Amino acid sequence: TILTIGIGPTRVLVITNDHVTRLVGGRDVLVLCHKGQLHATDMRCCHSGGPLQEGDMEEFDGRICIVCPWHKYKITLAEGEGLYQAVNPSATPPKQTWRSKGVKQRVHKVTEVNKNVYLTINDSEPPVISIQLQYKSTVHNCVK
């Protein structure tokens, strides 16, 4: 089932470079704007359930990420990949590069129609880790 809801006027997110949270189909979703681009992801971090709405957006290796405030886990906003910094010890000097752990966080489609933002929930299978944490969020709200 495809679920699409209206979020609100585009100008509110774009002008403020801000975010909004919504409960959609029993799932907490975070909609963000970074440099005029709209993104959406599950609100709980796939690593440990941290509140991504409190995280910073940063660029790593040309990819826009949200950084979880709890453990600094980096998640790409386009694909939901978890990033880590690997070291090639055989290089002289050893060189650090950003690598992907694969898709760990569920991301959702955000569209703009007639100056309004719409969110389409991604319910593809198999569910990624962030879905499992959604239902444990009450525990994570108590433990920080």
TrEMBL record:
Transmembrane segments: none annotated. Residues 11-104 form the Rieske domain. This is Rieske domain-containing protein. Keywords: 2Fe-2S, Iron, Iron-sulfur, Metal-binding. It comes from Esox lucius. Coiled coil: none annotated. The keyword Iron applies. InterPro entries: Rieske_2Fe-2S, Rieske_2Fe-2S_sf, Sol_Rieske_ferrdox_dom. It comes from the Eukaryota. The keyword Metal-binding applies. It holds the Pfam family Rieske_4. GO terms for molecular function: 2 iron, 2 sulfur cluster binding; metal ion binding.
